[in-house]
Design brief:
- The structure is a homodimer.
- Chain A has about 500 residues and is an alpha/beta fold.
- Among the domains of chain A are: about 180 residues, Rossmann fold; about 100 residues, GMP Synthetase, Chain A, domain 3 (2-Layer Sandwich).
- The first copy, chain A, is built from 15 helices and 26 strands.
- Chain A has a nine-stranded mixed beta sheet with strand order 2-1-11-10-12-13-14-15-16, sandwiched between helices. A five-stranded parallel beta sheet of chain A has the order 4-3-5-6-7. In chain A, strands 17-18-20-21 form a four-stranded antiparallel beta sheet.
- In chain A, helix 9 packs across helix 10 and helix 10 packs across helix 11.
- The N and C termini of chain A lie far apart (about 55 Å).
- Chains A and B meet through helix 1, helix 7 and strand 16 of A and helix 1, helix 7 and strand 16 of B.
Chain lengths: ~500, ~500
């Protein structure tokens, strides 16, 4: 199994079917395959070797699709970078992955100077933009036009295909290594469950393509021969317009996007009746939001996924019929075929149904490990099972209920934020003596980043000042949306901050 | 991915759903998993080691299902044996696979004596029958009742799961080695295509379980959590009654079975309306038979598969909508996701659409190789592609049309018969000076085995006498249904029999 399979299949079976729709630009599978094979040739001509990493820092587009496939076609590894990250974070991912090339679009071409200044930018930077390339950047279309098609390097199965960065418990992001087989078999098994992207889908990339959730839809559409529809970034107006105009059938969103699509005045009145399946996940969805969404989209099947990049990513699905069962509210659904889910106590032993423990998962989608972090890999894959760091329980008919995260992590608007990263950034401010960062329930974002700060004796700082300081170091979405000042932090006997106590306190105030 | 996954999933998600229905006997997934885990413990207690082979010689039944899963659960390898084979052929498979155990039902318990006499029978023979076990045979139910459950040995992925025997070009059957991943990923990709066994299926084992076609349905039903319904062997009456009584939704048949189901007076009037999908393949289907079948089953989706045991087995599917397109009559359909199909000339180069060449295939379902036959394995897998030995062409939208078999093989009623086997058997008769065996078109069987015989000078033998002789050596279905006597055989310059010339002559006479 290889990620480029869909191009060969498209050429053989439906060369004239639209492969990508990006604004006014429609490209067939024949055109898509032709451009990919040329771009791969161009990348090789620029001295890309099999196994090399190519980072992509761009909004969603047909060029993103082509670049990922061209990198795979050339036998190399693509590294989608979180577009919401700060320059130091992006620089970390570029250096850590050892990327030898970087692709940017017009939104991120201006970041190249700062990345170069940070000494983290690969020499070769490709530019996928509508206008002429800025100086020193290689225009993608010229490279495609000026190069011969190369033969598919034919990488596949267990070979490394992509590295997706996620936040790290230690404050250092981790590169999740996914093979061709991880991505392909995870997509296949989700599709085979009957409640996922289906053959012939017109699939909207509404979530960012650097997320593994959207990557799973991308892999499925390539394998099944559907059509990709792109919006550069999520906005209720853009998504509603794309669904209506291109008769989109399938999409994957985080709950915050579902809420905006349903509640925004910009999306009112749009004809969304073509949408057959709306797959959502990444954080809990508020019951009221889901109800409103189901009312707004009466012909759409709702499917919830419990997913994690380390599993490529789907582990469980709550299928459409389950959405009408009261007792299943809040469940992530049941394990898809060939994914094993179990709940273990602290000694790794299975617990009985209804008992909370750590959620462990195993299956074909399992990552190869964390890039260059054997210690972190061993910590989560030691016994062959992925230790998700989430706690939860199973009903006696196999429905998973996620209770809490054991890892100190916040999921806000579908993005993972590790408390340690935010605490490190806050602690770098001279007025901060001690701090603790937790997630608190939030109607809009699932959770929001909340900081409890103890000021240094005699020092002062406003919440806005602390937020602004944090944003100079890490991505804006990681900055605390609310800050609370305290005299001290509750500590355990061992001197660890008792976050559970902080969380409980924040719920009752 | 492991074949036992479905039992774990069943226990977790739907323990009380029927897993197997065999006549009056219904067993839930909980019961099925319990029996399998006990039987696996029993097999271990009988000194079965991981990797050992266990042969199964039985008609379809729930015990067949349990035995295959128990062997996998114990970490061993199951070897389903063709029930239509002669004793020397069965003995060959037992010896060749090195089976350390044999499971028989009451239909084949009487064969044990002959297999023992041939020195080919493993010491341990298990008996799955309704009555008391014959002397020297270990009753399955007693073994299950008397043993503790063992833990799943957790074999999976690329590890050997099963050996399926097929006829050999050299007259010697070949054991096709399939891994857990071959079987699982082939089933998944067929299911993901949307036109195969689907989640929640009530699947009828109408074709023999020793065939890879039915095995694929078995794997899918286990993975998706459907219900297996068994008939011991195909008969129009039994199949029609099982469909009507158990509201069967899915089944896989060879064309000869479809014809009998549709045409037999025994099946007239049965309520077959529950049948959602009828998957057929193994040989070409006559247009008139397909038409009658579609008339008899107006609510059933017809799906044709081009399949081969060496690919676990599905390569292409002709989906229901394609059945209404005139130009696609006779096509095997298009490649399923992650299966690559190409047509190559004699030098292995791709040919253009419409040009006939050898059909090559590649994908996750590919066999590990032929058991103990590295030369034969290399001959068909040398360049990473499976050389099917069939010739065919692709339309410019990827539909496969099988034209002929390059390998000297006949497919009669869904069974592969290699000419060499039959020629060897015929040649052993003292009256036969030379012979050639070919397949000729046959309305009932797709092809029938036809022999052209040159008698030894002064000798004589009737067709019936030759047929009877052949049946003493090989399976009855391999014996020539028609015999033609000739003065000589047409030979090439190199002295090879010109079979194409014989085939053409048989068509015009």
């Amino acid at each position: 199994m290889r990620l480029t399979h869909g191009l060969h299949r498209g050429l053989q079976q439906y060369p004239d079917r639209p492969a990508t729709i990006d604004g006014e630009r429609v490209r067939t599978w024949r055109e898509s395959a032709d451009r990919v094979a040329r771009l791969a040739g161009g990348l090789r001509w620029l001295r890309l070797s099999p196994g090399d990493r190519v980072a992509i820092l761009a909004l969603n587009s047909d060029a993103y699709h082509e670049c990922q496939l061209a990198v795979a076609w050339a036998g190399a590894v693509f590294v989608p970078v979180n577009t919401r990250w700060s320059v130091p974070e992006i620089a970390f991912a570029l250096r850590d992955s050892g990327a030898v090339m970087l692709l940017v679009d017009d939104s991120f071409a201006p970041s190249v100077a700062a990345l170069r200044a940070a000494g983290a930018c690969p020499e070769t930077v490709l530019y996928a933009g509508p206008g002429p390339a800025p100086a020193g950047l290689m225009p993608l279309d010229a490279l495609i036009a000026g190069t011969q098609r190369m033969q598919d390097a034919d990488r596949g199965d267990g070979e490394l295909a992509a590295i997706y960065y996620t936040g790290g418990t230690t404050g250092r992001p981790k590169g999740v290594m996914l093979s061709h087989a991880s991505l392909a078999s995870s997509a296949l098994t989700s599709v085979a469950s009957g409640a996922y992207v289906q053959p012939g889908a017109r699939y909207l990339h509404a979530a960012p393509m650097f997320h593994s959730a959207d990557a799973s839809g991308w892999v499925a559409v390539n394998a099944l021969g559907g059509t990709h529809v792109f919006v550069p970034r999520f906005s209720p107006a853009a998504v509603a317009a794309a669904i209506a105009r291109h008769r989109v059938t399938d999409t994957i969103m985080v709950p915050a996007m579902v809420r905006m699509l349903v509640d925004s005045p910009d999306a009112v009145g749009a004809d969304l009746s073509s949408l057959q399946r709306l797959i959502y996940g990444g954080s809990p969805i508020a019951g009221a939001v889901l109800r409103r969404a189901m009312e707004r989209l009466p012909g759409t099947a709702f499917i919830q996924a419990y997913a994690m990049t380390e599993m490529s990513p789907v582990m469980t699905l709550l299928v459409p019929a389950d959405h009408h069962v009261e007792r299943l509210r809040g469940s992530g659904g049941r394990a898809v075929p060939y994914v094993d889910i179990r709940i273990a106590d602290e000694f790794g032993r299975d617990v009985t149904a209804g008992t909370t423990g750590e959620i462990l998962a195993r299956g074909g989608g399992q990552m190869l490990g964390y890039w260059n972090q054997p210690g972190e890999t061993q910590a989560v894959l030691d016994d062959g099972w992925l230790h998700t760091g989430d706690s939860g329980y199973l009903s006696d008919d196999g429905y998973l209920f996620v209770v809490d995260r054991i890892k100190d992590m916040i999921i806000t608007g579908g993005e993972n934020v590790y408390s340690a990263e935010v605490e490190d950034a806050l602690a770098a401010h001279p007025a901060v003596a001690a701090c603790a960062v937790i997630g608190v329930p939030d109607a809009d974002w699932g959770e929001r980043v909340h900081a409890v700060v103890v000021l240094a004796s005699g020092a002062s700082a406003s919440p806005d000042e602390l937020r602004a300081h944090v944003k100079t170091l890490i991505a804006a979405y990681k900055a605390p949306r609310s800050v609370e000042f305290a005299e001290s932090l509750p500590l355990s006997g061992a001197g660890k901050v008792l976050k559970r106590q902080l969380r409980e306190r924040s719920r009752t105030t």
